[in-house]
Structure formats: structure tokens, C-alpha cells
Amino acid sequence: MSVIYTANYNLIEFEKRINSIIEIKSKNNLLKHLKIIFTIRFNTQLLNKLFGFLKKDKFTIWYIENFYNMDVTSVFYPIIHGKIISSNIVTEIKLKARMNWIGGSLTFIITGLMTYVIVSGFITHSDDTIKLIIIRALKAILAIIIMLFVPLLIYFRNLKEFKAYLIKELELTKVK
Known about the structure:
Shape: elongated
Oligomer: single chain
Strand content: 15-25%
Structural class: alpha+beta
Number of strands: 7
Helix content: 40-55%
Radius of gyration: 21 Å
């Protein structure tokens, strides 16, 4: 879902501001994200930096941090795509956030494997009374929810902080 913000300055000023906060210019492609994720553990200078690029009326930025200093959590970072709609006085920015492709795929694969393991456990039991099936189904649902909760918690926490930072730095106001 896109959210529209306004800035009380023109497009040229917006481009200056967005370029000043992007610390590492980088294209948004799978190879760059893989390189960043695999080298971030050894190159901590990449942590807590804004990556991104600006191209005509669009920009893409992302921010990587470790959640409570756990290396694996740097995979679940948000990417914000912005579309700039400019007039002479006011600039409108449409922001759309998504989890990066690698983090989303990893979440999907782990949840799928967990679901397979749990569902295959249903089949191997020979004492299939309705009560036991319901109990096993509830345990399976709880385990899957927990597996989805951790990456989504990390993603939404980072997204909230990242959006607040962008709104403050770019002096944006939300359109109602």
C-alpha cells in the first residue's frame, strides 16, 4: 500500500536532500543485495548506512541494521520505493515499502519447510482420534505463526524507524 507525503519545496531541493542522506549509491538488484548480506558480517562499515539511488522521478532506498546484534536479522530489512510527483511549489512523494527479495524468500522457504515437517508428522501417527488431530493442528498453527512472527517483527520494527527517519530528514507531511 502506498502512502502519499508532501514536501514544501520543489523537485530540485528534494533531489539535493535525498542525495545528501543516501550514504552509499547502489542499484536495487539481487546481486547487490546478496553481496551486501554476505559481506556485512565482515564489513561492519555497511551497517546503519542508507543505500539507494535516485533516477528521474523515482528513488529506492534501504537501511540495514542488526536486530539486537544478531547477524542473521540483517536479512529482513525493508526497501522503500518512492515516486516523485512535482509541481512548482509542492512536491508529492508516494512511498511504498516492501521486504527485500532475499528476506521474503527466506521467510517463505523456512515457513514452507516448517509446514511440511509439521504436516508430515500428522500422517505418521496411527492413533488418529479427532481430539489428537485437533491438538496437533493447533500446535502446528502456533509453530507456523511463531516462525512468521520473528521476521515480520524485525521487518516492521526496522520499517517504522526507517520511515520516521525519512519523514524527519526530508521534512515530509502525510496527506490525509
